[in-house]
Every structure is written in C-alpha cells, then in structure tokens.
Amino acid sequence: MKGCIEIMLKTDNQIATKVYARYSGILSLSKFSLLLHDNNGDVLLEFNPSPDFCRHICWENPTRPCADYLKRFNSGEQGRFVCCYGLENILLPIMVKDEVVGFISGMQAYSQEREFQKYLINTAELSEMKGLDLEVVAKAISAFPTIDKDKADIHEQLCHHIARNIALDIAESTQDNTRIINRLSAEKELLEKKVIDLEAKNMSLVINPHFLFNTLNSIARIAYFEHSHTTEELIYCLSDLLRYNVKQDEQLHTIASEMDNIEKYLYIQKARFKNRLQYEIIVPNELKAYRIPNMVIQPIVENAVIHGITPKRDGEPFV
User: Fold this and answer.
1) Where are the domains of the chain?
2) Which of 107, 191, 236, 275 has its C-alpha lying 20 to 30 A from 77's C-alpha?
C-alpha cells in the first residue's frame, strides 16, 4: 500500500490534473493553503499553494516542507498545531485499511490572537541567513493571511473531507463506496452552507467605507461651522486613520507614511489622555524613504498606550 499515492499521481501525466479538478469546487471555498504529501512528507500536489515565506524561507527544498512538519511526519502527530513562527497549521493522515498512505496539510495563516507575531520576525536576520533581498523577505512576511476561528474550523473540515475522499479513491474494496460517497456528498453540502452563512454574516457587519468617510467629513464640516476646531481636527484625523487602515494591501509603505498614520493615532489618544500622554516622534530624514510592511509600527505604539499609559494615573512620556 505504501507509495500508492505517488503511483496514482505519476503513472499518468494527467492524473494530477484530474485529482485537482475533482476537488477544485470544494477548494474554492477556502483561499488558505492545502497540500497533498506522500507518506514520507514530500509534497506531491499543492491544491492551494503555501505562502511564499513558507516555500522560500522555511522549506528544506521545493518538495520538502519545514522542520515543524517533518517532526510530525516522523512522530505520527496529527491535527492542529502552531509552528515556530506562530502560524496555525493542520496535518491529517490519509488512512487506507488502518495504514497511513499520505498526508493532507494546510492553513499556514495567523489567528487573530497571534497576528502580532508576524511583526516580531527578524527580517534582517532571515534576509542574511537565506541570502534573500530584505524587501523580498519583508513582503513575504506582510503577505501572511489572517484567519478567524470560524474560517479556520471550516478549513479544517475541508482538509478532513479531502483526506477521506483521497482515501476512498485509493481503497481497493468498493463494497461500501456508495454509502460513503453519499455521506461525503452530504458533508460537502454542509460545508458549502457553512461558508455561505459565514460570508453572509461577515457582509452584514461591513459598512460601506465611502459612506463612513463621507459621514465623518460631513460631521467635521459641521464642527467647523460651529467653530469646534478641536473636534473638527479629531474627526479628520480619525477619517484619515480609518482610510489608511482600510487601504491595507501587500505593498510595502514608506516609514514616512507609517509615521504620519502613527501621528494621527497619537493625536486622537492625546485628546483622550490629555497631559497623561506626552510623546515625541523622532525619525531621521534618511530613513523616511525606506519601505516596511504596512501597519507594522501601529500595533507596537497602540500596545504602548494601552499597557503603558492606561494603567497609570499620571501617565508618563514616551518616545
């Protein structure tokens, strides 16, 4: 039975395409990585590709995943786990007649609780260690997706579903296939319904950003005519801050634009904390044109305010 997945994919050049096509419909329900491995852990097929960071920095070679996975292939560990960089992962065996013939892996995304960890990765150290351009490493880090709990659970169910389907394809006995296929079809319909319900829930929580910004600007104009200039400035700062956050993408932003965003954030917090919050922003001019991942500084400043200033009655200055 060992090696049957390799044989299935390699005896015919069109087999891999057929395998992917068979699951492409259900794979479209998730954008997160999902890979097929042989029983030694080598990657045979990427249904949904791994992030560039994993492929170019963590993997041993183009078909050999990172040490976190290899350890689990050897030890027989399975299920959800968090890798050394804080990413959510899943590893499931493909079982045929109580024998492991391959694996399904996937996810490689940050949970909302662990998203801060990508800002702690030492970009310069990795760039030097891997011989890659600093900007390439920074862009790969900034491109890591974030996954909420509901979508992570659905993706795990997708992995289970595909692992069972592949096991069914490989199984020699067909006596119970009709019953199993009917059950798997029902599971697929249930997963599709969960995704649709989740997307509908998310859409109901989204406010049209143009409506939001137009409303804030209208309030600011009212404040201007009422000679409430502090209120006017606060509203414009909030509008710019939200617009910058909504505009998050995979592009690297200049330090100057990041610090401009930080300055607006601190201006708003200064109105709240008054004399408790004293700050000074010092950035050498020669550094302002350098590019860094979007929103990489703001969480650090926000944590400094929340955990450093909020608990103190009198506050203290920070630079």
Assistant:
1) 4-204, 209-309
2) 191
